[in-house]
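Q: Please design a sequence for this.
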């Protein structure tokens, strides 16, 4: 699978000297997260991937929003899975961040793929997939429709905290790399655990508080790549390069 890192076409299956940068929900430090204006900013400021979150409406539409409710990031209230796509689209997803962004909407997954395919990579997180029966098949079908399901095409990585979901995605889309998201482990990460992860994932993606060069080396020894989340800005991401990570999620790419 090819990817574009700072203008250079590279292979996700080989080690690179420079980690790729993924915009956290776009450019979430400066724009309302998971909106078109936020993704546009990440693209404009040199991100290699946009990181986005997927939920599913009650009528089966895939939408790009982090929480399983609309309460925090819109002017509405309720669970995404109990709302129709039409109801979701009527919500204002910008004003909560700044009144200048009034009228920003929650994007459809297809809208994001259509707008950015061939321009930037997609780091797709399945958020609470256990809430949405069949969401893995729906995501796989959508990626196939856009020709994003096989090596040599445009760069896509699917990640989740849910191991069962990643097992399903491996079966549905064997050509698309998968990453297991992990939070802090008080007793560290054991070799036996990394060996198990290789059965269903290609990436081991830790929270920044876990990041150590020794952990990166250990993951690489087991054939796993690593994307760390989340650096505050590009300057902080530059500092994390020394650990040897393969990718860094960056919260802020610009200053408004």
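A: Design:
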């Amino acid at each position: 699978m090819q990817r574009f890192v700072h203008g250079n076409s590279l292979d996700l299956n080989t080690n690179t000297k420079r980690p790729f940068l993924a915009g956290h929900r776009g450019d979430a430090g400066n724009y309302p997260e998971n909106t078109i204006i936020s993704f546009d900013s990440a693209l404009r400021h040199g991100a290699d991937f946009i990181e986005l979150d997927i939920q599913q409406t009650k009528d089966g539409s895939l939408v790009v929003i982090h929480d399983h409710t609309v309460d925090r990031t819109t002017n509405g209230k309720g669970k995404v899975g109990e709302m129709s796509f039409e109801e979701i689209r009527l919500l204002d997803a910008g004003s909560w961040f700044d009144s200048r962004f009034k009228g920003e909407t929650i994007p459809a997954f297809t809208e994001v793929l259509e707008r950015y395919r061939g321009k930037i990579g997609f780091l797709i997180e399945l958020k609470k997939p256990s809430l949405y029966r069949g969401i893995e098949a729906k995501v796989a079908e959508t990626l196939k429709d856009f020709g994003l399901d096989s090596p040599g095409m445009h760069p896509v990585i699917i990640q989740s905290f849910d191991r069962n979901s990643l097992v399903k995605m491996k079966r549905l889309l064997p050509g698309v790399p998968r990453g297991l998201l992990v939070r802090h482990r008080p007793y560290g990460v054991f070799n036996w655990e990394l060996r198990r992860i290789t059965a269903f994932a290609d990436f081991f993606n830790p929270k920044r508080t876990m990041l150590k060069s020794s952990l990166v080396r250990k993951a690489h020894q087991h054939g796993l790549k690593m994307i760390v989340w989340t650096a505050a800005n590009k300057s902080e991401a530059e500092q994390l390069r020394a650990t040897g990570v393969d990718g860094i999620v960056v919260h802020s790419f610009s200053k408004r």
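Q: Thanks. Anything notable?
A: The chain has eight helices and eleven strands. The first helix runs from residue 36 to 44.
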